[in-house]
Structure formats: C-alpha cells, structure tokens
Design goal:
- The protein is an alpha/beta fold.
- The protein folds into 2 domains: about 1-70, Nucleotidyltransferase, domain 5 (2-Layer Sandwich); about 70-155, no CATH class.
- Helix content is about 50%, strand content about 15%.
- It has 6 helices and 5 strands.
- Helix 1 (about 15-30) runs parallel beside helix 2 (about 50-60).
- The longest helix is centred in the N-terminal third of the chain and has 17 residues, at about 15-30.
- It is globular.
Length: about 160
C-alpha cells in the first residue's frame, strides 16, 4: 500500500531538522503498517525549501509537492483544524502563561476527538464516527496510536 504524506509544521521553528525528524517518524510509522510514502506535500515555508528536506524526500524515493502560494484550499482539512484549534484552544480563553496553554492542550485534543460534534460527520464526535483511513482501521485506533497529543504539545511549545 502506498500513500501521500502531508507535512505541516504548526510552529515558528520550521528548520530543516524539525521537518526531517517529523518525516522520519512518519516514514517509520507508515512502514510499520506496510505503507510506502510516494508523495510529500508541504507549503512553501523556509523549512520546506532547504537541502535537508530535499535529501530526506529523495531518500524515500518520493516526490515533493508544494501547495500554491496563498491558496489555503489545497490544505482544506488541515487549515480548518488549525483555525478551530486557534479559536477554541489557543485563544478561546485567557491563559496567564504559555505553559498553562500547553498544559491545556492534551485535554482540548481529547475533547476535540472524543466529544466535540463535527459538522462534516453529522454532528458526531470524530472518534464515534466510523471513518476509515489509509491503514484500513477506524479513526479511534489510528488517532490513539499516533499519539497526536504528544506531537502537538511539542510543536506548539
């Protein structure tokens, strides 16, 4: 099985090492599940234009695709998630310190995945809808195994 991998930094620190590290972890995860990455889609940020990422994508024998500048529709679902995260978690309340905001993130992600109604799923929470993914599993198992909360805390800090 093959798939495309889309990289989105979500942080101001988009140096090649951070991006390369994420791509290596994504490659290993998908490899462990019998999936080979064929394409890597990024925006045009500085961390995605350097030689480090170019070498990492070449090592995967994948094709590096970039979104069109100023065209958020290309990244529709990711852009929508980021908007929601900023509105509901990052700026949804006043935090005294950045560390308080970081500590609130895991609970927000759990709520987003397990309790928050999603319009695209008929008002059901994400993990109660039987949405299949590239690995042929349902979302609950996939999200739990990817440990997205841990990655997002690191990326937002």
């Amino acid at each position: 099985m093959t798939t495309a991998c889309r990289l989105r930094g979500g942080t101001r620190r988009r140096e090649g090492g951070h991006v390369r590290g994420f791509l290596a972890r994504a490659r290993q995860y998908f490899k462990d599940h019998g999936v080979r990455i064929e394409r890597v889609l990024t925006d045009n940020g500085t961390g995605y234009r350097g030689n480090a990422l170019k070498a990492a994508v070449l090592a995967l024998k994948a094709k590096h695709l970039r979104t069109r500048p100023y065209r958020p529709q290309t990244n529709g679902k990711a852009e929508r998630f980021i908007q929601t995260m900023l509105r509901e978690w990052a700026y949804g309340r006043i935090y005294a310190r950045s560390s308080d905001r970081r500590r609130a993130l895991p609970a927000w992600v759990r709520r987003y995945n397990r309790r928050r109604p999603h319009g695209s799923l008929g008002g059901k929470p994400l993990l109660t809808a039987a949405v299949s993914n590239v690995l042929g599993r349902h979302s609950r198992e996939c999200v739990d195994r990817l440990s997205t909360t841990r990655w997002m805390v690191r990326a937002s800090g």
